[in-house]
Amino acid sequence: MDYGFMTQLPLAGTQSIEEILELIKAFIHQHPDVENDRAKWIEGMGWDQTRWSSAQFPSASDLERDPILEGRPISLSRVDGHAKWVSPRVLELMGELPDHVEGGLVVRDSEGRPTGISVFVDNAMDLIPTPEETEETMSKFFDKTMQDALAYGLTSIHDAMTTPKQIQFFMRKAETGTLPNRLYLMGHVPSSHYWGSQIPQLVNYGKQEHLTVKSVKLVADGALGSWGAALLQPYSDKPSESGLLLTPPDELRALVNKFWEDGFQVNIHCIGDRANHIVLDIFEDILTRQNGNVSEWRPRIEHAQIMTLADIQRIGRLGGMNKTQFRHGKTLTALSVIASVQPTHATSDMGYAETRLGPERIKGAYAYKSLLQASPNHVLPLGSDFPVESINPLLGFYAAVTRLRFDPSDLEAPGDSPHGRGGWKS
User: I need a labelling partner for 28 at 20 to 30 A (CA). Which of 80, 192, 293, 380 fits?
Assistant: First the structure.
């Protein structure tokens, strides 16, 4: 669904605030219903302040620079989905803001006013009163996603954060045989209280047997680009910050244990080394002290982006010496905790990652070869994380092999990186 949402007002690759404002104005002119009704929400996705000359978060006032934008509720998601930039009209609708948000941040100016910068990071995004998805918008986003996925050769998709409402939508599609792609859904509810009863467990559901729901998605921390990835030590370029834990460790542990007991595969978003360390501790407790079976449960860390060198080795060891029987009498060591990585994250972040982390900590970041070698079966699942990255899987293969960033606007140009054409940290 998020991919379809992104395509309505795509902002990825924009180089300045001015370019984004021009795209918003074009969107308004292309949609008469929006142009003629200033109360209609305008939502987009894809901006990345690290691509701008200022490299700083934008301000609410930027979204009223042009008269056509004045008084409109505008909410624009950062490229990673971990921050939102809103207009002054949205701030008016929100009223008084809390001084503190657990697992989130309201970025304010030097005088403490949110109108000065007005970016809402991670859990603070929940304060924004954006309209709920309707059946019409879900159908629109679904159709666009399926169309583009099939065009790029994708026939099976892991959807890594599916709400109960969206699951019901997909179930209706499956029941009528109108689900052209195989979907493996990870249910998600933004709550620290157990919500497993809201997620049905389904395997090969529907007329075409294209729908499976037997896992959940939890979120440990934020993203590196918005200084939200939870780190064991402060950021190198912002020593006052160490990132955000979106779910307190004790609450996360309780959730993981209950989902394991109820038979759900657990997938957890972890970017920073602190988040990865905490989650590995939780997984290790279940696998070693509670006799969890790693092959049956298949616990998964989504992104595994920044890890200590010790935790890179630990993720490969967790699971012990369980055996999985294969045909022809052969056995292989069971899967360890799954590190699910996205190679284009490395090439998207390589321009600022070492600035955030410093020369030592970067050694355990985007360390795909090390994770591959640590895996007992030398297997490392790759993905795209679209719409955060491109839906085109070939770009992921290219990034994994070359550690170079490809410019989609110039098909003839060779890839490049901060370390030249030999590849970044390759």
Answer: 80
- What is the pTM for the complete model shown? 0.92
Give the rounded percent of residues in the chain with a pLDDT score beyond 70: 93
What gap in Å lies between CA 297 and CA 256, rounded to an integer?
11
Q: How far apart are CA 85 and CA 106, in angstroms?
A: 10
Question: What span, in angstroms and rounded, lies between the C-alpha atoms of 76 and 87?
Answer: 9
CA distance 396 to 382: 8
Strands 300-303 and 323-325 turn out to be unpaired
In angstroms, the CA 101 to CA 321 distance is: 43
Do 122 and 104 meet the contact criterion of CB atoms below 8 Å apart?
yes
Tell me the three state secondary structure of residue 365.
strand
| Secondary structure element (H or E) that encloses residue 160, with its range | strand 156-162
Query: Distance between CA 140 and CA 369 in Å, rounded?
Result: 39
In angstroms, the CA 94 to CA 72 distance is: 14
For every residue of 145-185, DSSP letters joined together read HHHHHHHTT--EEEEEEE-HHHHHHHHHHHHTT---SEEEE
Query: Phi and psi dihedrals of 324, rounded to 5?
Result: -115, 125
Query: Using CA atoms, how far apart are residues 163 and 213, in angstroms rounded to an integer?
Result: 12
Angle at CA of residue 27, ends 24 and 29, nearest 5°: 115
CA dist list (Å): 258 to 196, 279, 286: 8, 15, 11
The pLDDT score that the predictor gives to residue 327 is: 43
Phi, psi of 157 (to 5 degrees): -135, 135
Give the chain's mean pLDDT.
Answer: 92
In this prediction, residue 325 carries a pLDDT of 44
pLDDT tens digit sequence for 178-221: 999 999 999 999 999 999 999 999 999 999 999 999 999 999 99
User: pLDDT grade, residue 398 (50/70/90)?
Assistant: very high
Single-letter amino acid code for the residue at 289: R
H or E stretch at 74: strand 74-78
Structure tokens at 277: 């360390």
